[in-house]
Amino acid sequence: RPAPTGVREEDTPVREEILQSIWYDQLLPPEGLCTTAGQRIRVVSPGWWNRQDGPDFRGAQIEFNDRLYSGDVEVHLYSGDWKSHGHHRDSRYDQVILHVVLSVGPDTPAITSTGRRVAALEIGPLLRPDLRAIAAMIADEERDTAKADNLGQCADLVLRFGVPVMMNLLRLAGEWRMLNKARAMRERMEHAGMDQAVYEAFMYACGFSHFKHHFRAIARHLPYDRARQLAQRDPMILETALLQIGGLLPESLPEDAAAAPHYARLCAIRRDTLDGLRGLPLEWRRVGVRPNNNPERRLSGSALFIARTARDGLVESLEKVWRGDATPLQRRRTFEALFPKALGFWSAHCTWTGKRVERATAPIGAGRMRSIIGNVFVPAALALARMRRDQSREEKILTFFRALPPEPENHLTQRMMPRLFRDDTAVKSSFQLQQGLLQIHQDWCASNPSCTNCPIAHYLEPALDIIAGSGASSKSDTSA
Which of the 8 DSSP states describes residue 247? Predict the structure, then answer.
């Protein structure tokens, strides 16, 4: 596209990612920054570099005319990119407080979906004539999220107090997070019923991060009692229903598609058994989604799991795991046995029309199973134990939680580990530790990436006394 008026084409030979690096590394004059409307600004923190959908930077801290604000930042080459990219209609950009652009054109200022005008910072004039040199320097560097510029105050505190002190805090934070999940689960149980609440949470967890809200919407559209009835008749009836509600069962396929036999059977079920079942108006954005995480596979796996637990019901099937004596590992294996194996059409395909994969895989993989066990089954069990005032059961569940191995890393845990521990490879991760990282990020880091006046040191000092009193290391539970 042509450059805006007043900007020479040869002055803008950079990619948007280069501008993001310039913003993140703050390769801008530290003084004298002003918005296009004349507001003085000072960048306290550029925010968290967001590698997912949504604004480029989350939780930035910026002073406008000496008043501190926290919010998101979006970076573009040109001011008109805000509208051309559709951000003015996208609620995910409603928390943006600064639009950083290389060049401002005669375009309409950035407006959020709520109608709020977003302040703009034009950085092109601040970078010339050095833009080409800066771009070349950045392009030659390998970005490493564990570099010193990504370390938080906690990294220094760990050096000062030692790893065990931070680990103790993370365990406490992880347990607190799990108890909060149990509290939320109990509230939903009291409102919707026990099976329905767990079913909704299970479906939510089955959806890839892009689709979790879609899966919960499907679970609420097709309540558990009805889903269980369909699964008891035939798991494929439930698979058909879930795909139809999600708008993922097409009206036709190419005649030579490998899915033809499976598809034909589902279409027959839709016609003969589920006639009139309408779909929800869901949009499935698949950019950045790995093939194995496609919603068709996950919905098929969900249907099979519900079928495997349909005889006793979802809650009763899970409750059986906690009865009697067993090690954490034995209980985890029992949970895993409830999930479907690598059988059927979706174990060897990722889409309706794609090629057969070389190696069949279960529609709900081992990593997602661990996530569901930790984020759904554990809080559900804790909620029920607390409702029944069963302290013995609660201790049994917490012992299992403390021994649970880590779930697959996400961008937050990948960010937080080096931020706290640098590159210390001796720190052994666990599900509880990951939950603690997420809780600390939520409570402190997300809105304060600069660590300004962070109170975490005050929490670590009492923990130091605890560690000193009980020895530098403590025995861990038998691994699950």
Answer: T
